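WARN retry 2 of 3 for item q-0093 after timeout on previous attempt; input resubmitted unchanged.
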Amino acid sequence: MTLHSESTGSGLDAVRRAGIETTGIEIIDERERIARPSDLFWPWFAANVSVFGISYGSYVLGFGLSLWQATLVSVLGIVVSFAACGLVAIAGKRGSAPTMILSRAPFGVLGQKVPGVFSWLISIGWETFLAIMATLATATVFRELGWASGDGVKVIAMVVVAALIVAASVAGYHVIMAMQSVLTWLTGAATLGYIGLTIDEIDFDTVTAMPNGSGQAVIGAFVMVMTGFGFGWINIAADWSRYQRRSTPGGRIVLWNTLAGSLAPVVLVLYGILLAGSSEDLAAGIVVDPIGTLATVLPPWYLVPFLIAAILALVSGAVLGIYSSGLTLLSLGVRIRRPAAAFIDGVILTLGTIYVVFFAESFLGPFQSFLITLGVPIAAWAGIFIADLALRHRDYDEEALFESGGRYGAFNWAALATMAVATIVGWGLVVNGFAEDASWNNWQGYLLEPLGLGTWVEDGSYWTGNWAYANLGVLLAFVLGFLATLLLQRGRVRRQESV
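OK item q-0093 returned
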């Protein structure tokens, strides 16, 4: 295998001649596009059946919601966000290329590198977070079993987890799909076992007595759920649908994507709401070590199956992330082999895990702050991408996706400006909810005071006002990107498809 080039004039043929494997960034051959819509169930379900989803019940209740409010925002946030992933996945069927290659159509072949950088960062962040979770969970369960504790356990766990993630991502699409189909059954069964063994921890009188929160808190929780679930995957959604037949109805792809991504998280988050609402100690512990805390309510004999299932589920999610982040790295023009791209991301993942596990005082706060920060530009990108897809009536010109002189051009300055404006406005309407743990992010929310939506309290390092923590910026960035593209890009798309 030789390195590939995407310089001007190199084109799709040059990418193919370079010997990039079928899991690289080149167009999938028609003969290999034999996947069925139902095949999408395995990667999306396996990656989202992690018991970590139970911990989101505590995060949702942290907004001060009642049981019915928490249930409403959880179901809607999860389903709507994965439905958006399904819409992006349609592009994979229509273009048979990775998401960030297809995104060259609305942004230009070279202009796509701007959203590509954000996509790579959020993928790296997610996979590192999942590796951290697996490492901390292992250490906590080992301590609960009385087997061992301390840094030695964490080091071994970190090495094993990182090795599993990188090895699977290097193996490629077909191995990952086979692996995910097995993990779905294993992790699903273990998660059901967890629910059965801990259901006696639920105090329905306590949970149903929780008072209603404000409308602004409901919106804030809704945005948090969307960014924590579907919007965390939306930038790679087409990576797993590019093996679908061109004749596959788009509605079936959306259906299976939404069903597979939403099914497990809806059940897990709702159960987590019941658990966290029943015990303040459990809710507080989840903030520090989510999976480890969830393990403390299990009987000792189930800790080993729980640990195995938890790690495999986290690894499953991280594999999807690192596989796609490697594709994104290649789409940015980095001239290395795909396995090398996976290795680079694996090194970054390992370094991030080392820092958080052994040196950082806390990680959940900074991570959520990081998530909401990158969630704004990714939401803007998603709005632009989905609107552009809606405007197109034909499949993508596959050759032109690799030619800066082709019909998609090198730069679409209108799309880049739309994303920039939507991001700047969005960042002005989101706040860092962990001002002390992630003080580097306290610059956000700069539009709240001018618009009378909140006030920054300098001495206490927090915001006041009903709308301050609603994080309207994520939703607004998506809507601005979507509407601006529908209004401004219709003529551009029509000209492209008339060539």
